[in-house]
Amino acid sequence: MHLFGVPDPSNRDSIAEATLRQWSAEPGITWHGRTDKVAQVWQEHHVALLLSYYREGLPRTLLEAAAAGRPIVTTDAVGIRELVRNGKEGILVPLRDVDAAARALVELAGDRALRARLGAQAHARIEQRFTETAVKQAVGQLYRSMLAS
Questions:
Q1: CA-CA distance, 117 to 13, in Å (whole number)?
Q2: In this structure, how many other beta carbons lie within 10 angstroms of the beta carbon of residue 72?
Q3: 43, part of any domain
């Protein structure tokens, strides 16, 4: 498991750097800290995992993972469901259910075809709803509908 990012001192629920370093000392876990090479991260990894449990909207990292064609394991939360539909672009797990997330990772680790299917659908979802062109069209349609009423 590869962990990226740094603690947010303004967030009391952020994982402390000491904890991240402790986890990274365990076999199979590497904490990389902050990175500017997001595209490279997604090229080198097979699955995106983000277990957010507070309302943060749609995290950019999930958009980037989907754009790279990676399946996503994430929490069933507002905002996230705009991108990830359970069984389509990834696997949604209940908030704070680490065991469900672990089962989802094990399922994806053992099924290359499932990873490929969910990743392809995640990429297609980006193309359909989250490109600059798609967003412009959606906003334009919203304004046209408001003017018509």
A1: 34
A2: 24
A3: yes
